[in-house]
Amino acid sequence: MASSEDRWRAYAADLGCALARARRATGLSQERVAHAAGISTFTYRKLEKGESNPGTAANPRLRTLVALAQTLGVPVADLLPPDPDIAPGR
């Protein structure tokens, strides 16, 4: 069974895929999405990769997720993968 850290990495990667898919659907560049959401392009690119630093899963703030969803014109829930059962100790 995968560790909770492995499940979190997979969840973050799925979130990144959802961001990229929503961005491509709007026809916006990573730079435009980042600017409109009030974050750096570097940060946005890392989110699409599912990481915050190499080897560290992304863990964006709720404010960032809401801003990205608004920029992309989708509900926040559409960006979030299904519940990964990532509670500590499971």
Overview of the structural elements:
This protein is mainly alpha-helical and 90 residues long. The protein has a single domain, classed as lambda repressor-like DNA-binding domains (434 Repressor (Amino-terminal Domain), Orthogonal Bundle). It has five helices and two strands, in the order H-H-H-E-E-H-H. It has a two-stranded antiparallel ribbon. Strand 1 and strand 2 form a beta hairpin. The protein is globular, with a radius of gyration of 13 Å. It starts with a helix and ends in an 11-residue tail after the last helix.
Q: Could you state the CATH homologous superfamily?
A: lambda repressor-like DNA-binding domains
The whole-angstrom Rg is 13 Å
The total of beta strands comes to 2
Instruction: Give me the secondary-structure category.
Output: mainly alpha
Task: Give a short overview.
Helix 1 (about 5-25) crosses helix 3 (about 40-50).
Secondary-structure map with pairings?
Layout: H1 4-26, H2 30-37, H3 41-49, E1 51-53, E2 56-57, H4 62-72, H5 76-79
Antiparallel strand pairs: 1-2
Helix pairs in contact: 1-3, 2-3, 2-4
